[in-house]
Model the fold of this input.
Amino acid sequence: MSINNFVIIIYMDFAHNKSVIVNHKTPIKNVRRDSMERFILKKLLDWKNSPYRKPLIMKGVRQVGKTWILKEFGRRYYENTAYFNFDENEEYEQFFETTKDVDRILQNLMLASGQKIVPEKTLIIFDEVQDCPNVINSMKYFCENAPLYHVACAGSLLGIALTKPSSFPVGKVNFMQIDPMTFNEFLLANGDENLAQYLEQVDTLEPIPDAFFNPLYEKLKMYYVTGGMPEPVLMWTEARDVSAMQEALSGIIGAYERDFAKHPDLSEFPKISMIWKSIPS
Done:
């Protein structure tokens, strides 16, 4: 089983009930205890500093943490962040319908929102872009005519995948995939830095001492229960609230089903819903 930045394979030897291979490659340093640590922030920093940087489209399922990650990235590494949500402010999309001039688009956004945008100093976040083909298409002009602006887009994975080919800026954007939290990220969020550090330093096949194996085994079970989704992880790590965690997971599953209804032909939705509900949970 591969868990993102490290590999952890558990062998259940029922005679001895222990043995684990761990191979972890992500260093764990300077973790802020008041915030979940997501290792993808390092990839975002590489994107920021790349001489070949293009506008970024962050891909990932709903509720996986795309918006939080981009805002946290802007908070850490830019002077300010200009955030535009096209679901909350649908009128902003009109700025992209009337012109392809990037400077005019940004001027209108600044005047309408009161936010400041400075080349190379501001992270511009366009959120919920899955239903805004003109916004996605404008990335071509940001790439070609305004490369000094750092632009990152986020939206539902399904919606972006179904964007009409004619409106997609092929070759003019970078993509980055955000997945649920890794086991190491879960351990850090749970305050188990010692266990995360232990996983980091083990890189060979060897028995794991009971002092590490037993707590790791228990933490791994709870990690699977949360699915690595940030909100359920937060409910567990901060409050140990199982009912709130289950409610958050149910809400995420319900959001996925509602997302299905937005895109296919309405006559196909009942079939898709039946298939979705038939999957064992």
